[in-house]
Amino acid sequence: MFKIISSLLLLSFLSTIQAQEIIPFRITKHNNIIVKTLVNDKDSLDLMFQIAMEDASISPDRKRNADHIIFKDEISNGNTIKIGKKKYENIRFFDNELTGHEADGKIGTGIFKGKIFKIDYDNSRFVVYDKMPDLKGYQSVPLLLKNEQLFIPANSIIEKQNVEAYFLLQSGYSGGILYSNEFADGKELDKKLKVTGEKTLKNSSGQSVITKNGILPVLKVGNFVLKDVSAGFFVGELKIQKSSYFGADLLRRYNWIFDAERKKVYIKPSKYFKKTYYKIN
User: Fold this and answer.
1) 147: left (phi over 0), alpha (psi -120 to 50) or beta
2) What single-letter DSSP state applies at residue 237?
3) Count of other CB atoms within 10 angstroms of residue 199
4) What's the burial of 88, exposed, middle or buried (CB within 10 Å: 0-12/13-18/19+)?
5) In this structure, are residues 34 and 28 in contact, taking their beta carbons and an 8 Å threshold?
6) Vertex 55, ends 122 and 124: CA angle to 5°?
7) In this structure, what are the phi and psi dihedrals at residue 182, rounded to the nearest 5 degrees?
């Protein structure tokens, strides 16, 4: 019994020293991750984690003051961000960028640059590691890093056809899948998916874009299968959606461990895996 207890304590100790830092977060009802920060030792801000960017930004609709972030041509360099006891230096902020609900701005992946990090949805925290942690139960998925953004391959099953495409990890989009115009037009999603709702928007020139919400029968990421996935796409004159999104409602369904080089990510289902899908109004 003593040997068993000693072994468990040793494993717990090794796991603790592997973790360089732990950053708690909260998840909003819109699936966005919110991190409490202190910027330049003065401004207390709730920032939404945006996995699709490296830097940080401030929203024009923020509720809290950001008076100590000094902008020149809507860019502010050399800022500090304190999260818990950890302070990050030389953070760049952009001004006037819209963000998610309940947030004063956004914070990107730059705070994890060159590090292994985990998005632990089970325990509402980020974990940063010096060495790769135990990967039992996780599956490896290749990452494509392009313009500071991360893409993963996934398979959409549409009318029994298996269609692979790369999806941008997009934690600022509260929904599930949002297909690019190229994918939606090429695969005729308007005809092949069950449509559950739509909206028509027009710009000042009278051009229209129709947003449609549908149901994708099967989505496969690695060997993990999600069924009846909420999927959005655009039709109309305006071609505004360049990339397909893997939104926050899908991100929360897994725990994620990203390697330091951003060449691979390791995933396994989280406690949210079988939760009801978020509805885009």
Assistant:
1) left
2) S
3) 11
4) middle
5) yes
6) 10
7) -60, -45
Dihedral sign for Cα 9, 131, 128, 223, please.
Answer: negative
Instruction: Determine phi and psi for 163, rounding to 5 degrees.
Output: -115, 115
Straight-line distance from the first to the last Cα atom of the chain, in angstroms, rounded to the nearest whole number: 56
Contacts of 39 (CB under 8 A, 6+ apart): 45, 66, 68, 69, 79, 80, 81, 82, 91
Single-letter amino acid code for the residue at 229: V
Q: Are 97 and 53 in contact (CB under 8 A)?
A: no
Element (H, E) at 3: helix 2-18
Distance CA 278, CA 280 (A): 7
What pLDDT, in 10s, does the model give residues 31-86? 999 999 999 999 999 999 999 999 999 999 999 999 999 999 999 999 999 998 89
Q: How far apart are CA 51 and CA 110, in angstroms?
A: 9
Give dist(CA 120, CA 29) in Å, integer: 17
Under DSSP, the state recorded for 231 is E
Going by C-alpha positions, the residue among 77, 96, 103, 135 that lies closest to residue 267 is 135
Q: What is the pTM of this model?
A: 0.90
Other CB atoms within 10 Å distance of the CB of residue 26: 13
C-beta separation of 172 from 48 below 8 A: yes
